[in-house]
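Reopening this ticket.

The earlier resolution said the output was attached, but the attachment link was broken on my side. Pasting everything inline this time so it's all in one place.
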Amino acid sequence: MTTTDYNQMNSSYVETFHYDFEDILNKLGKKERIPIYLYYYEGYKIEEIATMLKENVSTLKCV
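Inline output:
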């Protein structure tokens, strides 16, 4: 297997994972989806998300 073959295979896997994750994320309710999106896609820290959403940090850690 060449490096190019490996990179194409790896890229395809990452792309598939990304779409699968989005599908799962879209099936969640708004209350669960927003903190997960802000954390994984936007890179906010849990403390920042708690402040934005006016939630306790411990509540968000349960999501």
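Reporter confirms the inline version is readable. The chain has one domain: 3-62. Residues 3-27 form the longest helix (25 residues).
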